[in-house]
């Protein structure tokens, strides 16, 4: 991690300890190792893992508030969920849902090599999520580059109506996605500018009845 990366984290209001940094470095090394056989991230971002992926993911922490269980859907290479899990330690449990078995194997190796208590669920979101929600109360549900807002809300609804919070990364398409949502006043939306991408935003979703 460079000085500029540390400064970016400081602007978010927190610093990483030695153990957290060590875990993220292991993650970075494994990501580069697996990239050769499994296309985990865009090739152009491989040399910018900290700003483009790690810090991008970590910016959700100040927006999450207090939580005990966090679920990240469509986790892919682990952003943001795996990053959150590695730095959270015993403060909360992060669940990752990924349908691609090879990517899930990568997530499992990072979890194992960093000795982190991260729960990985292999399967399609629409199959895995209902079972998890029936047995666990999730305060946070997150996703990055996964689906349009309407689909994300369909996935997240069971969590949101129980008082959970949705944290979703969105790009230039956000305005049209919000405009095209069906009339539904069940949820409130707040957008926050991304600290790593001037064209991106984070959408915070709450249930208005919770």
From TrEMBL:
Belongs to the methyltransferase superfamily. RNA methyltransferase RsmG family. This is Ribosomal RNA small subunit methyltransferase G. HAMAP family: 16SrRNA_methyltr_G. PANTHER family: S-ADENOSYL-L-METHIONINE-DEPENDENT METHYLTRANSFERASES SUPERFAMILY PROTEIN (PTHR31760). SUPFAM superfamilies: S-adenosyl-L-methionine-dependent methyltransferases. InterPro entries: rRNA_ssu_MeTfrase_G, SAM-dependent_MTases_sf. The keyword Transmembrane helix does not apply. The gene is rsmG. Keywords: Cytoplasm, Methyltransferase, rRNA processing, S-adenosyl-L-methionine, Transferase. S-adenosyl-L-methionine binds at residues 74, 79, 125-126, 144.
């Amino acid at each position: 991690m460079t000085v500029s990366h540390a400064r970016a984290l400081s602007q978010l209001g927190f610093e990483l300890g030695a153990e957290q940094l060590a875990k993220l470095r292991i993650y970075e090394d494994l990501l580069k190792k697996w990239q050769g056989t499994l296309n985990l991230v865009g090739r152009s971002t491989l040399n910018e893992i900290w700003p483009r992926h790690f810090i991008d993911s970590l910016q959700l922490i100040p927006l999450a508030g207090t939580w005990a269980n966090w679920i990240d859907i469509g986790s892919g290479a682990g952003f943001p969920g795996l990053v959150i899990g590695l730095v959270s330690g015993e403060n909360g449990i992060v669940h990752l849902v990924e349908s691609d078995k090879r990517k899930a194997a990568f997530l499992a190796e990072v979890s194992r090599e960093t000795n982190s208590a991260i729960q990985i669920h292999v399967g399609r979101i629409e199959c895995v999520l209902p079972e998890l929600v029936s047995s666990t109360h999730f305060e946070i549900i997150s996703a990055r580059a996964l689906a349009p807002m309407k689909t994300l809300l369909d996935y997240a609804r069971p969590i949101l109506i129980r008082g959970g919070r949705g944290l979703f990364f969105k790009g230039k398409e956000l305005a049209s996605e919000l405009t095209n949502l069906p009339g539904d006043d069940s949820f409130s939306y707040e957008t926050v500018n991304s600290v790593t991408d001037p064209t991106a935003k984070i959408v915070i979703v709450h249930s208005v009845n919770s």
